[in-house]
Amino acid sequence: MALLAVRDVTLRFGGIVALDGVSFDVQQGHISGLIGPNGAGKTTAFNVVTRLYAPDSGSVAFDGTDLLRLKAHRIAGIGISRGVPDARPTFAGIVSGALVLTLPALGFLGLVWIVLPHLAAPRRAASDNVLELELPAFHQRESVAFDTERDSRSIEDALAPERPLEQRVASVMALRRMDPQRAVPLLRIALADPSEDVRLLAYAILERREKQIRSRITAALTELRDGATRGARATLLRNLANDHWELVYGEFSEGDGQAINLEQAAHWAEAALAVAFDGTIALLLARVRLKQQRPEAAWQLIVAAERAGVATGVCAPLLAEAAFLVRNFEAIPRLLARVADDPMQPPRLEPVTQFWTERMR
Question: Whose CA, among 142, 206, 262, 357, lies 20 to 30 Å from 73?
């Protein structure tokens, strides 16, 4: 039996498949290595074995023990660890190595010569491996942490592969403070970065966000079961709808999992609307129906949301999407023209409005 057995390990970062059914064995007493070009997944495979990453599927066993069932900090106790060597030669290292290899009798003295100064000297931080970063000076307003429209474009530009590594890392760090609907697509972009530092940081932020969402869902369901008041119940229902929808647009689920989250988002949104009509929840349910390819149901909800006070600049693009799904192309320029009349329209819709207006003339 192999000492280390990796079987059918698959790991995805959003839509990016980092490991696709990877399997290999390491036998007792053998020295093995992974060889491949940059981006092949070598470091990612080591990160799975050392429990830094949790794979989507597959198994990793060491001496008969399932590593994936152990907490990450427990695996060192059974013999799994990872080191990051510093291959830079030093004068002291060269001298002591020569003494140990060529003069065994003086090797011990050489070792003492190297070790004692380090034991006597005060400890100091290993600053060579620490990267100090300042967050980029993105536009901010007092009312919110980000001016989301401008800062989304600023961060996306800063995440370009040709930008310095420090700038890309700082940009990903800045996304922790941005609202999820803007931040998650940018984090997905960062998952394709050529630097593993950037990819790992983006993955950690996404994983933390997903855990927070699922934790909120569990807490809300528990509170509902325990019997919440009418006012608290309405809030819990709205929160459950929003959280399941975030799992969808954040691409935290795929295939059947996404379909289930869409149904859950719709279920809780309908329950919230049954307690009290809310334009924002009606619009959320409309987005769900559009995702489910149900444009007629979405249209009625969007119209109701606009009547309830939701801004025209928010509703009109969704109405245009519903019109597109039913192939009513002639209505799209008229609907998007309503966006142009709204002073609060998102600037990124301008080229869309221009395209459809010119196309349908």
Answer: 206
Same domain, 140 and 67: no
Distance of CA 74 to CAs 3, 28, 139, Å? 18, 21, 44
Q: Looking at 226, 260, 293, which one is the last position of a domain? A: 226
Residue 213 has which token pair?
Answer: 């969402």
Domain boundary at 34, 55, 74, which?
74
- Give 244's contacts (C-beta < 8 A, 6+ positions apart): 217, 261, 262, 264, 265, 268
Domain identity same for 138 and 216: yes
Does the pLDDT of residue 305 top 70, yes or no?
A: yes
Distance CA(195)–CA(38), nearest Å, equals: 10
Residue 167, domain member (yes or no): yes
Helices (H), the chain: 42-49, 91-102, 104-120, 148-158, 165-174, 180-190, 196-225, 230-249, 255-275, 279-291, 295-307, 312-325, 331-340, 350-359
Q: Could you tell me if residue 189 is inside a domain?
A: yes
Q: Quick one: what percent of the chain has pLDDT higher than 90? A: 22
pLDDT tens digits, residue range 38-56? 667 888 888 888 887 888 8
Asked whether residue 56 is assigned to any structural domain, the reply reads yes
Say whether both 137 and 212 belong to one domain. yes
Nearest to 233 by CA among 267, 277, 275: 275
184: containing domain = 132-226
- 299 in a structural domain: no
171 confidence band (pLDDT: 50, 70, 90): confident
The whole-angstrom separation of Cα 103 and Cα 98 is: 7
DSSP structural state of residue 25: E
- Residues 51 and 136 reside in one and the same domain: no
CA dihedral 295, 296, 297, 301 (to 10 degrees): 90
What does pTM read for this prediction? 0.56
Q: Is 179 helix (H, G, I), strand (E, B) or coil?
A: coil
Tokens at 163, concatenated: 């930008």
Q: How many independent structural domains does the chain possess?
A: 2
Q: Choose among 269, 260, 277, 279: nearest CA to 236.
A: 269
Q: How far is CA 357 from CA 105, 314, 324, 348, in A?
A: 88, 18, 14, 15
Say if residues 280 and 310 touch (Cβ distance below 8 Å). Answer: yes
